[in-house]
Amino acid sequence: MATAFSPSKFAAQPFPLNTTSQNNPLTIPTTASAFLGSTRKPILLSSSSNLNLRRGSLTVVKALSKGIPARAILSELLGKATGCCRGQGGSMHIFSREHNMLGGFAFIGEGIPIGTGAAFTSKYKREVLKEADCDHVTLAFFGDGACNNGQFYECLNMAALWKLPIVFVVENNLWAIGMSHLRATSVPPIYKKGPAFGMPGVHVDGMDVLKVREVAKEAIGRARRGEGPTLVECETYRFRGHSLADPDKLRDPAEKAHYAARDPITALKKYLIDNSLASEADLKAI
Amino acid sequence: MLGIVRQKMLEQSLKKIPPAVSVLRSYSSAAKQMTIRDALNSALDEEMSADSKVFLMGEEVGEYQGAYKITKGLLDKYGPERVLDTPITEAGFTGVAVGAAYYGVKPVVEFMTFNFSMQAIDHIINSAAKTNYMSSGQISVPIVFRGPNGAAAGVGAQHSQCYAAWYASCPGLKVLAPYSSEDARGLLKAAIRDPDPVVFLENELLYGESFPVSDEVLDSSFCLPIGKAKIERKGKDVTIAAYSKMVGYALKAAETLEKDGIDAEVINLRSMRPLDRSMINASVRKTSRLVTVEEAFPQHGVGAEICASIVEESFAYLDAPVERIAGADVPMPYAANLERMAVPQVEDIVRAAKRTCYRSVS
Fold first, then answer.
1. Where along the sequence do coiled-coil regions lie (chain A) (predicted)?
2. What's B248's domain CATH number?
């Protein structure tokens, strides 16, 4: 059975915004159909996978996914003592030992080695300390901007060299504040850099929750089986400016409109309703 | 084996017919000598043996037996999973080690010299030092960064800088600098056992030097407290505070000063952060005069901090301005004669001490 990592599936992958066409949708292979037959369980990364992240609101999103209560996160954002870090960390530094959230990092690329280190520890605990049930997989999240940073390449090398149980997840939203990924990068397809270091590089439509899920499952399975790291590039988009201080004048309105029409949450909602997996009322309750 | 050594020494000494006293003295159990290199190696060995979470990481630490042979024999004993040879990637491997420490193991990271730590300083400061605070105590980082620091011999400007002041200014770090073998063993063991990030500044030129070590120091449970200085030589006329190699120079200066009737007290700082302000102040309150000695650049240095501490807490006790001896304010020259002029020498310390005593320095 062809897996998400079979080279044929991604051979003819056009990169978006490739010079001319801005409304060229990704031709993602139809992995969705393969998924339909499988379980409907919610995304379960690992009982204690570690997430670490790069910036601001994204840290918050990952923190929520890891199960840190929304109230604790919001309190932290407001600098309150009831925050998950007692107001000492703030939006960019959400940590939770209990939820295995190893932090957000402000310096671009800083979190990549940290995540690689956590994966190193998983392997160390299993092989040197001989701890049972130590199959923890680390997910390191970062953006397209971090992919031009030296630490990224240093970690791709070490993770592949030592076969660490880690998935490097690039959230390529094509813009690093006001710098277009295409203006900053000599070879824009980031997933192609994986094989250069000895690991599979996978490109997936980041706006499709289910496709990302399937790719994640496979990458995590690979890591758990001891086959080493994977580089996953999720093509996505940033609907607003980088921060409140960003006037966001450099991005083409047509580009923004193209991606706004592909809002992942709206798409998932439509999918759930069309396939009778949930009702309007259920979703409204969420 | 000791029996054979004794026999051989006896034969030798009988041939020379020395006084009985000196023969006995060579068998004294308290007079064992140990090099700094062996002190560090034995400390690493014992801590790795005691706790399987401790592992080493760095360039050439394994198969090459260590760039300065500090980690000699450890790869054979503990295997490649606990003694890791890394690629040349300071930022990467330091970050990996810090991340590993977040998640529960105890890395000891070697920098071939602390100059290279500048490539990793983001991880030392932002990922290691600040994390316990940012996470409000949830994540502790039990990591040690060690390696040679400061001037060596003829290695030029980019390989000779001392980083004590840089690291010691950062809250969240502990910064240690051993002088003797007792310091090296005790402080490295303390650093490895400590739950917080520790920067451990060694000195390349001291690695081969021998110091006497007692049985207590050789015991595997030996440990020195972090944050406490040591009075290497008691005195009453002037306090000389130094760290690392400069402690040796200060002791030599004290011998010279003694001939001129100045009784110097020499403090081995041992710990730059936390700085043992109470001991330094107590000493200055006794002597009323202070000379600080460091090989590092003078501006914003350890000496400046000690001077500020004395002025803040013991101003009324000073009988003379504080003298600060430091390296020259210039990138380290390469030529040997220039290099000699760029670092403090014993005569500089002697002159400074005499100045504090208002003695002629000719």
1. none
2. 3.40.50.920
Question: Given pLDDT bands bounded at 50, 70 and 90, which one contains residue B266?
Answer: very high
Pair A85, A124 in one domain:
yes
Q: CA-to-CA distance for B356 and B240, rounded, in angstroms?
A: 11
pLDDT, tens digit (0-9, with 9 covering 90-100), for B150-198: 999 999 999 999 999 999 999 999 999 999 999 999 999 999 999 999 9
B233-272 residues touching A, CB cutoff 8 A = none
CATH number at residue A234: 3.40.50.970
pTM to 2 decimal places: 0.80
Hey, which residues of B are catalytic here? Answer: 90, 159
Confidence of residue A112 (pLDDT cuts 50, 70, 90): very high
Put the strands of the sheet holding B290-293 in their side by side order: B230-233, B264-268, B238-242, B290-293, B323-325
Residue B287 domain boundaries: 230-357
Domain that holds residue A259: 252-285
Note the ipTM here. Answer: 0.75
Q: Please report residues of A whose CB lies closer than 8 A to that of B141.
A: none
Instruction: Please report the pLDDT score of residue B11 as a whole number.
Output: 54
Q: Is the alpha carbon torsion for B182, B183, B189, B194 positive or negative?
A: positive
Within-domain flag for A87: yes
Q: How many domains does chain A have?
A: 2
What span, in angstroms and rounded, lies between the C-alpha atoms of A230 and A140?
A: 11
